[in-house]
Amino acid sequence: MMTKNDLVIKHLKTKGHITSWEAIQKYRATRLADIIFQLRSKGMAINTVMCVKGKERFARYIYLRKK
Question: What is the pTM (predicted TM-score) of this model?
């Protein structure tokens, strides 16, 4: 069985990015910022971009692939 961390890693590697809303809807992962923190501490290169949509602000986490 895959952990939420594993699911987020797979999502980042296939889609290239993820938001908290996607993580909640698809993987029931309500603490995406903590998962991203853990992945970064393990050496994954993930960038944070703050987005604005109407009156809403949210973070989009982007996986930086190595060339």
Answer: 0.89
Give the closest residue to 44 by CA, choosing from 61, 16, 59, 63: 63
Total count of residues recorded for the chain:
67
Helix (H, G, I), strand (E, B) or coil at 62: strand
| 48: alpha, beta or left? (left if phi > 0; alpha if psi -120 to 50) | beta
Closest CA to 48 of 22, 38, 58, 14: 58
Question: In whole angstroms, what separates CA 14 from the centre of its chain?
Answer: 12
Strand partners, 60: 19, 49
Per-residue pLDDT tens, the chain, 67 aa: give them.
Answer: 899 999 999 999 999 999 999 999 999 999 999 999 999 999 999 999 999 999 999 999 999 976 4
